[in-house]
Amino acid sequence: MTVTRRPRPASRARSKAPSTRTAIVKLSDVKCGDTGLSTKITVKTQALVISGTARGVETRDPTARNASFEERQRTPEYYKTEQFGGGLSLSFDRDKMPDFDSSRSYVEKNRWLTAHSASINTRIGQTPKQVAEALAMRVNENEEYRATVKANPNGTASVTIGRTRVRVR
Fold this sequence. Notes:
3-stranded antiparallel β-sheet; about 15% helix
């Protein structure tokens, strides 16, 4: 009795070469200080969705906290004003953070946290796509991660972050 073996089809063969695909990274925390923008994270695709129009840094009279947006913009005296808002920050891949013990320096932990976060300042009148592109540019400063921006038909913009240099087995 002879046994004949059939070769596997080429589509089932595994590639041992490293892939250039990016793996989607889990977004951890989003803080939006701009009152004109709203943000949310979609759980399924791990994308940050930005909507609205940026108001940038705003000023107000601290004694009149319930003043309208127009009243905040025309405060008569500079020393009676305070500034607030105008920023967006994002942290990602926090579930992969190593356990830093007491023998290691806080410098290593802070370096890791800085590499896995991004923050930008917004300006008045920026669209969601412009804010998303600025945030993606800040994320792309780190060579290990790549952020992509997608403009949605409803006027919102989505930012997805992926890790580069992933190997497929």
